[in-house]
Amino acid sequence: MNLILNRLKIYIMTIINPDVELLPISTSFDEMLNDIEKAACICYGNNKSNLDTLKFLHALHIKNHNRPFEFGTLYINPDLISTESEDEIIDYILESHWTKTNYINNTLYITTNMRVVKEIMVKFYSNINEVFSATIRFAKKFYKYTENHPKRYTFYWKIARGIADEFRTHVSISSLMQSTRYCCYAKDKFDNQIKICKDQSFFDDKKYFIELYENIEKTYLKAINDGIPAQMARDLLPLGLYTELIQCAYQLDWTNFFNQRAFDSTGSAHPDAKYIANIAYNKLYNEKNQQ
Question: Distance (Å, rounded) from C-alpha 272 to C-alpha 270?
Fold first, then answer.
């Protein structure tokens, strides 16, 4: 108990402004693998895994943690097909709703993601390690980024958990959020505190929320100190909790997202969602105009 009281004297709950980053489009096989790793690390509350990238991805595969592989955008050159099985795999890829194509000057440009390929490989291999090896081997051979490929865009949000939950309802967008099951905010890497994302609309008029959040933090830290697992103590955490969310999608999917979250196409959006979605919209279209 003394440990938790000492921590509460030292650490003060942090209020953080929401933010969003448009991540660069990866244009190489290695960068694509790094994108998968980054997405998984956001989920676990890490900056980087303690394994090299391929070993880390293999560990995800063994645990059947498939969602991070959606963040590995695979730009395919089908001209490299040299076997019937490769041709069959390409056909399966083209059937996936996660796949988009452009046909320009008699050339087919295919974009998909690594989870699609990994799940197709199950049709060809029964051994779990062979599935992973075949996925990596296929992607390495066929990866060929060009400006003609349909592109996927990735946003890295730092927002309130309540807003992140709203953003994750867009099922055509790949999403991974910092997990309150695996992230224990009583640990040093989280500064032994919870963080709150500032309400942009009328935070200054909600000063009574600060006292509530402080009490929540004290209760959460005490629960962890008393041996309650993080995945159970998370029930104490508020929707205003600062969280990190990564999302990846094609431009049309982002257009639908912005219509709802920035431009009120389906009714009035939450003020905080509208605030940060407008920033993301400007980042995407400023980036595209500069290309």
Answer: 6
